[in-house]
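We modelled the chain as a single entity of 326 amino acids. Its sequence is:
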Amino acid sequence: MGSAVDGQHGERTELVVAEFSGRADAVLSAAFATISRAQIARLISDGRVSLDGEPVKKSAWVQTGQSLLVLLADEAPSAGSAPASPLPVLYEDDHVVAIDKPAGLIAHPALADTEDTVSGWFAARYPELCADLDPARPGIVHRLDRDTTGIMVLAKTPGDAATLSAAFESRTVKKTYIAICNGVPEQERAVIDAPVGRHPGDRGRMAVVRDGSAREARTAYEVLGQRDGKSLLVVHPESGRTHQVRVHLSAIGAPVLDDPLYGTPGHGRHQLHAALLSLPHPAGGTLNLQATLPRDMAARVRSMGLAPVASEYLQPSSAARSSAPE
């Protein structure tokens, strides 16, 4: 990406030099890694992106080396807005709060705007804690994709945030997802060991990339059951790359059902749920969390006749903290 140029009061202009030839929205998605595709589309539709002095359409073709001018709001960082409905709290103490994130909600905003976010919920619920935390993403130590449901843990102090972030980075956090897939993996149980990076032809997506530019990624899975060409998987990502589970399952021919980016769009959101999380508690011991399958996924599981093999994940949500070892 190029440099920032002063715009009108409260605005700045970013000069983006295309690093590859492609659609304008893909070029901008690659340049602004923290801005969602929907926000890129909104910038373009609002006429805030220009090429050679003319507003562009998102489908406009940009050649390598061409420059796009992007007009952005130069506002103070914002955590976003709190959702109208309260988020389900699975566990809370003086150090952390764990929630069961619904579909359609992002962790934190990529731009200073009014979109509902998990961080916006945190800021509204704990305003007294936010002065010492990142104003753009208070409490956030890990993320789930917008339409992935399930467990998110948020930190209440900078020290707790540092401890939890280190646990995720060092892979001492154990994560379990449930996925309903369009397809059946050839192996009933396996570990997918394949690097994940930006898709070479669409920088707004991720892909398995083996040219040395991607980061290593490992995902273990087990097929719980299958019916009519669809399968129910329990998935354990050992690393935490962007879209890792969705990319890896697509790579083995079993993309997450209704995934518009890595599979086939359906009538609802993609069928992926963060069901179990086990992590070191900042004050000692281990925090074990479970979030029951949301209604849409539970209904799919039952319609597939697979409720018996998924009974563990249909149980009510729960939380337990073990004592620190003596």
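As a brief sanity check on the tokenised model: The first helix runs from residue 24 to 31. The helical segments are 24-31, 37-45, 118-125, 158-169, 244-251, 295-303.
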